[in-house]
Amino acid sequence: MPASRRTFAAAAVAALVLPLSACGSGSDDGGSADASGKVEGDITFQTWNLRANFKPYFEGVIAGFEKKYPGTQVKWIDQPAEGYADKISADAAGDTLPDVVNVSPDLVAPLAKAGLALDLDKTAAKYKKEYLEGAWASHQIPGMTGTYAFPWYLNTGPLFYNKSLFSKAGLNPDQPPKTYDELFADALELAKKSDGKVATLANVPTVEDFGRYGVGLMNKQGTAFSFNDTKGIELLTKYKELYDAKALDPQALTATPESSGKKFLTEAVAMNPGSALDLGNFKKNAPNLYRNIGITDQITSTGHVNMYVMGVMVNSKTKHTPAAVAFAHYVTDAEHQMSFAKKVAIFPSTAGSLDDPYFTKEDGTDETRVRIAAAKSLKNAVNYTPVLFSEQMKTALRNEVAKALQGKESPKAALDNAVKACNTLLQQQG
User: What start and end residues bound the annotated signal peptide (predicted)?
Assistant: First the structure.
């Protein structure tokens, strides 16, 4: 992927769910091939839009693996970002899925259900301790036992806020909101003092936001969504109050991360999520904002920030299971994840890596400060977006949230309808 924070984050959370044509009848033993034999043979490795920026890196990783394991040969395939899910779907249906595949958790789910993703809890359990607990769990599927991809790189980021806008509203620029109650109170104050000209937030709540608020998103069996509980209704009611007061940007109903970022850049919005990469953008394109930038933690009721995660899956039908598992592990081991993390603003999912001085030692720059804060928060972060939450489900939730904010439905009715629609779509996934 291109080395922009938004591209990495978007790719990591994009709900690109495979069509039903890719999902055959689930196989109980589809993920239990033996990986204990000799590491040898030719395998294919597919990445997701990484060749343009990281060709030398991956060629070096492959050369290192082939040197470590004589008798192996890795063919690297890189697919464009657009249509990646469709490509995987077609390969799955045509029995041409590569041996090792770069995936996100939502892409793993239908493959695992179809018996095409190797269960690493059965074939590679010895490696589990090498990874952060939350990262390893990110490729587990509700209603199924097992883990279906090695965790690869992670991303998260702080909240940026505009100190100047806080000061103009009479708020302490050195005391940003730390809780949801403080966030909502500050947002209403900012809107009031600016006569509705300055919104604090620019995006409607997503399923991830409901998760951070402490809403129960799904039942443990993975058979039904449940974000229409009391806390879910409470959160959407708060957002309705913000929307009516123009504390939530009026264009939030159609906003994208990019458009929200531009609003923050032009100082029309007081707070926005981001990462260390954004600081360079602020410095170059919005020097006045950069001089007044504040950095604070993601707001969460659970004590766990959100984690975006990528993974590396092994095709359960590979003819060279030992080699495919060994390579997937090699790409995602601590040494190679650290090397990759220093080339682009992402974070390793391997246990202990976040204690490296690169992620702990201050040097006086804001970029390092953000990197250190993000690394610290990732140690117990979780991926709030349910693995089974598809693009269609995201659209259903967004449409109902819009109706609630516009006053066309009550928050309760909107979430009841969203849950009903999402549960129908879940049953159709098979």
Answer: 1-24
